[in-house]
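User: Can you recover a sequence for this backbone? Please restate the input before giving your answer.

Assistant: Of course. Working from this structure:
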């Protein structure tokens, strides 16, 4: 064991710093991921949501692989090192995939070879999923290994600080990386800086790896002892095969199907597996909760892109709204433990862990009802866009008089200047230059338009000039708005410039405020505290001490399945209205909640420690009985042997006399 500082092994300080940096890296990258899919790779909402949840599902499947590799082959230390290298390579690959200048041959700000960026990003995400999932079950356990048996208090403090680092890294990264993403960067053209938003988490992952390696000489490195999950799987497999071999009626029935493993495996292991299977059976409905919960990083973030994030002195980015979750977790956990649960107990209500989990599910469903109501308000403000089977016609009148246009089957329409994107249209007979600190439109030749440009919200000043003449035009832009500025041929450069330019508001600014998302975040976080924290506590209390890893694997597996359900619904259901999809998920969780409450009603709480003690006592008594029976059998055999010997001697005596 390593040297100690204030009663703590020096090695754990390296582990704590490593965990903080790794969690910052993971959650920082994940915070901006769905917007990267939509706005950089140009995927639609369903595709972006599907790939996002596929990635999250892989992140919760690979811990099982990491635990098996660490416990059965490499050990925790080497597993963390090797997979952290894979993890860092994945983060760097993601950062490189977001550099638009690599394939932007015409330098217009849009990659010309999108396949390159898609392939690179998918490789990066796969490596990240393998790395973050693989080290997830190892780091905390490796930290626990650094303490000796007499340091139980220090070990508990370590785990508290360890999980505080997880929440701290998550909170800070979710605040910082969206700010980095919102910056403009580029070599030839300025675009949203996704490369910087991915690059900083990549740098933090490299720091995490270096810090962990620096402390390598101080670690206690336990040798691989074998993985309990493999033993459990082998025992269950043998029981199933043995039961199938003895399926004929001529064989007596067993009390439990796992009893068919008694021919090969220890009875205590079989009894422990029975207890675990009881808990795993309750896990069956749980994925639906995670189906809703993890959408705060996908659907809810996309919902926030159509909302106004101006909070006065503070402007919130759409992907920063996710910070509400860790802030509420740090607030609600102590409130629940020290206030809510004790008050419920004083009211005489038996608020058991399974009842808490049921209420947590209900709160998550209510959160999605709130999200649906917010989406209905957003839909009222959105323009009508053409569907995949429709086309949209944009007409621009560059003359000084209104023009009437007639289309077959439609009434006569009067058109002035209409456009979908932000740009300037030059209606003058001379070339006009337009620029602003955020964008340079360059020269706009007569009767043509500038390139489409995107700028941040707020007040901007545009400079227009032609030859030696110039003027300034001021305009304030809101979230999600789109304008066309028409420069008429009657424009006179000077003080009247502001009044002369015609503005067409193609898309109105987002008017639904992001603050309306706070109730849904509150309900989903309250549901998480009652469901997730209580669920882990319940699972650990109902399983033997050597089966904690099995339950942890089962719990993570429910998270992965929940994310795959989102993938299925997003790709197959194709519900046209987003609010209807929210209602669908809420309804599904309500139905699952009813099923889970019925299963919980018939569940009988157990004390695994007491059951194991009774079982061991019973086994010892059986062994004593076996020993007693063997002793009695031996005594009988000895008596018989003595009797036979005495009869033999008598026969010999008779023969001698004869």
């Amino acid at each position: 064991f390593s040297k100690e500082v204030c009663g703590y092994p020096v090695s754990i300080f390296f582990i704590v710093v490593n965990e903080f940096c790794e969690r910052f890296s993971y959650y920082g990258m994940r915070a901006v991921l769905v917007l990267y899919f939509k706005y950089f790779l140009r995927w639609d909402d369903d595709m972006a949501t599907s790939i996002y949840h596929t990635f999250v599902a892989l992140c919760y499947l690979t811990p099982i692989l990491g635990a098996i590799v660490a416990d059965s082959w490499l050990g925790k230390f080497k597993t963390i090192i090797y997979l952290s290298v894979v993890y860092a390579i994945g983060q760097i690959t993601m950062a490189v995939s977001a550099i638009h200048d690599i394939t932007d041959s015409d330098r217009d700000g849009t990659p010309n070879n999108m396949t390159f960026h898609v392939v690179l990003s998918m490789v990066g995400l796969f490596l990240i999923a393998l790395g973050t999932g693989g080290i997830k079950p190892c780091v905390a356990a490796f930290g626990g290994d650094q303490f000796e048996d007499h340091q139980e208090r220090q070990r508990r403090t370590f785990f508290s600080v360890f999980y505080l680092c997880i929440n701290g890294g998550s909170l800070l990264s979710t605040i910082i990386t969206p700010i980095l993403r919102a910056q403009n960067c580029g070599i030839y053209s300025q675009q949203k800086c996704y490369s910087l938003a991915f690059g900083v988490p990549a740098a933090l992952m490299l720091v995490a790896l270096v810090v962990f390696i620096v402390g390598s000489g101080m670690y206690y490195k336990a040798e691989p002892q074998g993985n309990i999950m493999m033993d459990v799987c082998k025992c269950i497999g043998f029981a199933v095969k043995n039961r199938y071999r003895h399926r004929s009626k001529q064989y007596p029935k067993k009390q439990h199907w796992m009893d068919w493993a008694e021919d090969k495996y220890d009875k205590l292991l079989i009894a422990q597996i029975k207890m675990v299977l009881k808990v795993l059976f309750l896990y069956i409905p749980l994925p639906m909760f995670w189906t809703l919960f993890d959408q705060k990083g996908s659907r809810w973030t996309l919902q926030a892109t159509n909302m106004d994030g101006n909070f006065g002195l503070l402007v919130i980015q759409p992907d920063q709204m996710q910070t509400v979750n860790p802030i509420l977790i740090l607030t609600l956990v102590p409130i629940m433990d020290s206030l809510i649960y004790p008050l419920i107990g004083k009211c005489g209500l038996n608020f058991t862990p399974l009842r808490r989990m049921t209420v947590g599910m209900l709160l998550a469903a209510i959160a999605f009802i709130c999200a649906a109501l917010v989406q209905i308000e957003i839909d009222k403000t959105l323009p009508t866009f053409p569907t995949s089977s429709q086309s949209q016609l944009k007409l621009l009148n560059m003359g000084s008089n209104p023009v009437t246009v007639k289309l077959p089957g439609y009434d006569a329409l009067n058109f002035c200047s209409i456009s979908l994107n932000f740009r300037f249209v030059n209606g003058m007979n001379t070339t006009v230059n337009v620029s602003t600190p955020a964008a340079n439109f360059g020269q706009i030749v007569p009767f043509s338009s500038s390139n489409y440009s995107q700028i941040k919200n707020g007040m901007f000043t545009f400079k227009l000039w032609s030859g030696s003449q110039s003027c300034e035009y001021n305009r304030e832009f809101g979230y999600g708005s789109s304008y066309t500025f028409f420069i008429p041929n009657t424009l006179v450069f000077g003080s009247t410039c502001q009044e002369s330019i015609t503005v067409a508001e193609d898309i109105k600014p987002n008017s639904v405020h992001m603050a309306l998302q706070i109730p849904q975040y509150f309900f989903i976080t309250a549901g998480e505290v009652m469901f997730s924290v209580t669920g882990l506590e319940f699972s650990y209390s109902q399983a033997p001490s050597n089966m904690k890893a099995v339950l942890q694997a089962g719990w993570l597996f429910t998270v992965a399945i929940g994310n795959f359900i989102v993938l299925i619904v997003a790709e197959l259901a194709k519900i046209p209205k987003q609010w209807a999809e929210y209602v669908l998920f809420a309804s599904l969780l309500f139905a699952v909640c009813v099923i889970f409450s019925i299963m919980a009603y018939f569940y009988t709480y157990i004390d695994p420690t007491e059951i194991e003690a009774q079982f061991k006592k019973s086994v010892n008594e059986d062994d004593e009985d076996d020993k007693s029976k063997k002793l009695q059998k031996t005594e009988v055999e000895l008596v018989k042997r003595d009797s036979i010997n005495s009869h033999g001697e008598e026969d010999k005596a008779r023969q001698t006399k004869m």
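That completes the design. The CA atoms of residues 20 and 168 lie 7 Å apart.
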